[in-house]
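Hey,

Quick one before I head out. I ran the complex with AHM overnight. Inputs first:
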Amino acid sequence: MELRGFDEGITLDRFLLDTLRDHPGSSGDFVQLVQAIALAGKLISARVNRAGLAGLLGATGEVNVQGEFVQKLDRYADDTFIRALEHGGHTAMIVSEEAEDPVIVGPPWHSGRYVVTVDPLDGSSNIDCNATIGTIFGIFRRKSEEGTPAVLGDVLRTGRDLVAAGTIVYGSGTMLVLGTDAGVHGFTLDPSVGEFFLSHPHIRTPSARTYSCNEAYSDAWQAGLRSWLSDCKGSGWSSRYIGSLVADFHRNLLKGGLFVYPATAKASAGKLRLLYEAFPLAFLAEKAGGSATDGRAPILDRIPNSLHERVPLVIGSADAVAELTARMAADLPFGGPR
Ligand code: AHM
Ligand code: MG
C-alpha cells in the first residue's frame, strides 16, 4: 500500500481507511475491529500509567488457566478487550490467555466474520516494577458460516491463515504495531489528544547480533543451544532480556536480534503459547523480513490442537534464526556434552 502524506501526520483511522480503498467492496468490518482493538489499547494504556496511584498493582488472588497468579491489571485488560470486541458485530469469538474457554459471541452480534486471539497483558510479572508490558493479538477470518456461532475450528488452524496480527506496547510511550498484507507499521499514541499516529512506517527487521533469553535456565537446554550460547560470548554478541516477550520482541523487531524461549527436558513444549503469543509475533516477524521457528519448522506452519498449547520459540532477524536453527538441527540430546 502506498502511504500518502506521511509527513502530515497520519492517524491510525486514516491509515485504516486508506487500506479500505485498496480493497474495494470490503465491508469495513476489519477497520472497525482494529479500531476496537486500538480503543482497548488506549484504555489499558491509561490504566497502566496510573496503576501505582489507583491501587491497581498486585494480584487479584485468582489463579488463571495457566496456573499463574492473575494480576489486577491482567483482569482489567482482559475485561476491556472482551468489552471492546464482543458487541461490535465484527468479532465472532475471542480466545484469551486469561480464560480457559473462548468467548463465543452470542446473538445478535455473532454474525462477525473475524475471530481474535489475545494475550491482553503480556509480561505481567513486570507490572509492579513499572517495566514494559504489552498486548499481543492475532486476527483470523472465520471458516464457519457467518451468522452462526463460531467454532473451535475457526482458531485451531495453521498460522498461515492469519489475516493480521499486532502488539500494543505500554512502555515509555504506547505504540501499536499492526501487521497485514500491507506490511508492518507502527503507530505511537499521543496521549494529549488520544490518537495513534503513524510513526514507524514499513518496519523491516535488520540483522543484529543481540540475543534475548533467560540465560539462567540454559543448563536445562539442549546441547546445540547451549553451545550456540557459549559461542556467542566474546564474539560480538550483546544480550538484552526484559522478561516480557512483547517488549523483548518489539525491541528486536525494530533493532534486530533474536528471542529464544526453548524447550527443556522437563517442559518439552516450552512456556509460551502458540495461539495468542507465538502465532501473532511470528506473523509480524515474517511480514517484517524476519522469521520464527519452533526449532524444527516455521511457527506459522503449526496447527494447534488446543487453545492454550505451548510451543518453543526462536524468533527475530532471519539470519540469526537460520544460524541457530542449524545448530539445533545438529543437536545432541538434553544434558549431553557441550
Ligand atoms: P505472561 O503471558 O503470563 O506474562 O507470561 C509470559 C512471559 C513472557 O512475556 C516472557 O517472555 C516470559 O513469560 C518470561 O518467562 P521467564 O520468567 O521464565 O523468563
Ligand atoms: Mg503472555
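Residues 68, 97, 119, 122-124, 214, 243-245, 261, 271 surround AHM (ligand 1) (CB under 6 Å).

Talk tomorrow,
K.
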